[in-house]
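User: I'm writing a short methods note and want a consistent example. For Putative RNA methyltransferase, RsmD family, I'll paste the sequence; you return only the structure tokens, no commentary, since I'll be parsing the reply automatically.
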Amino acid sequence: MRIITGRYKGRRFDIPRTFKARPTTDFAKENIFNVINGYTDWEETTALDLFAGTGSISLELLSRGCPQVVSVEKDRDHARFISQCMEKIGTENHVLIKGDVFRFLKSCHQQFDLVFADPPYALPELPTLPDLIFQYGLLKEDGLLVFEHGKHDDFSTHPHFLEHRSYGSVNFTLFK
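Assistant:
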């Protein structure tokens, strides 16, 4: 796993082989971040990374200058790995929540400029996540939700739909 650009550009982190996480490919990550660039001023963006997995997205957000990134990850080993990565880059702009995303959504009282959600594609509740994020008011006005999902999910009729991007088997839907 590598950081694509920003202050930590080129840094690599070896993901343990025992991990169940499916990290976003470098190709898809680079392309979706190019799209997000058009909507975001990184230095003024507070970000939330749901289903943080390996921490790849959180690291990229911090590298690009986000002053605060909150990562939510339930798996204990994955959370430990994310903590180790954050220690290696020496950031103090990161908060790791070790817990269930759905419980976090219900109890979170902070709003974010950017929410990045990369749930397991087979998660039964996957189709409900965009609605929950808007229902619980996690996005600031004009905030952006970037939602990674499989090719069989279609959110084009959602009232907050902005655009859809596909990079191989990786699909992103953006909501505003």
